Amino acid sequence: MIWLHYVQIKKLPGNEDIKLPQKMSELAAGFDVVAALEEEVVLKPGQRTLIPTGLAMAMPAGLEAQIRPRSGLAFKHGITCLNTPGTIDADYRGEVKVLLINLGQEPFTIVRGERIAQIVFQTVPAIELTEVAELSETVRGEGGFGHTGK
Ligand SMILES: O=c1ccn([C@H]2C[C@H](O)[C@@H](COP(=O)(O)OP(=O)(O)OP(=O)(O)O)O2)c(=O)[nH]1
């Protein structure tokens, strides 16, 4: 069964022309989001920039939204999200922004309305942290960071 979550989304003033995040196929996990830039931005190799989406959201408690790169932009141009996955908290009411970085060799131009990233919604488990003096024992113990070899 598919549980439907209701997320409110608002176009910020001056962004009435901006498309709402859109699934590009029936079962796509992500909603593509577009750049709400007033003027085009040229991202030089190694440069990062915060791109506005012109949108704000309100999710029910227990959801988060992740801002993830688009694989096509990453593969063809080296454009990715620096903080991937970016976290949008359910109580955040500011403009959703996308932190892009150009890891490619060429300058990359971003224009208004271009699909720059995707939003994937996730449920967040309710967690309560309990401080303890001793942790339960496991076979792995403190092994990590490649302790099982290649
Ligand atoms: O890619 C992102 C990441 C974050 N945000 C917004 C929504 C999120 O709820 C808020 C805070 O993000 P985060 O917790 O990652 O940032 P922080 O560096 O811990 O800042 P803060 O002290 O404002 O929480 O910024 C975005 O718009 N895009």
UniProtKB/TrEMBL annotation:
<dbReference type="GO" id="GO:0004170">
    <property type="term" value="F:dUTP diphosphatase activity"/>
</dbReference>
<feature type="binding site">
    <location>
        <begin position="70"/>
        <end position="72"/>
    </location>
    <ligand>
        <name>substrate</name>
    </ligand>
</feature>
<keyword id="KW-0460">Magnesium</keyword>
<dbReference type="InterPro" id="IPR033704">
    <property type="entry name" value="dUTPase_trimeric"/>
</dbReference>
<protein>
    <recommendedName>
        <fullName>Deoxyuridine 5'-triphosphate nucleotidohydrolase</fullName>
        <ecNumber>3.6.1.23</ecNumber>
    </recommendedName>
</protein>
<dbReference type="InterPro" id="IPR036157">
    <property type="entry name" value="dUTPase-like_sf"/>
</dbReference>
<keyword id="KW-0378">Hydrolase</keyword>
<comment type="function">
    <text>This enzyme is involved in nucleotide metabolism: it produces dUMP, the immediate precursor of thymidine nucleotides and it decreases the intracellular concentration of dUTP so that uracil cannot be incorporated into DNA.</text>
</comment>
<keyword id="KW-0479">Metal-binding</keyword>
<dbReference type="InterPro" id="IPR008181">
    <property type="entry name" value="dUTPase"/>
</dbReference>
<feature type="domain" description="dUTPase-like">
    <location>
        <begin position="17"/>
        <end position="149"/>
    </location>
</feature>
<feature type="binding site">
    <location>
        <position position="83"/>
    </location>
    <ligand>
        <name>substrate</name>
    </ligand>
</feature>
<dbReference type="Pfam" id="PF00692">
    <property type="entry name" value="dUTPase"/>
</dbReference>
<comment type="pathway">
    <text>Pyrimidine metabolism; dUMP biosynthesis; dUMP from dCTP (dUTP route): step 2/2.</text>
</comment>
<keyword id="KW-0546">Nucleotide metabolism</keyword>
<feature type="binding site">
    <location>
        <begin position="87"/>
        <end position="89"/>
    </location>
    <ligand>
        <name>substrate</name>
    </ligand>
</feature>
<comment type="similarity">
    <text>Belongs to the dUTPase family.</text>
</comment>
<dbReference type="InterPro" id="IPR029054">
    <property type="entry name" value="dUTPase-like"/>
</dbReference>
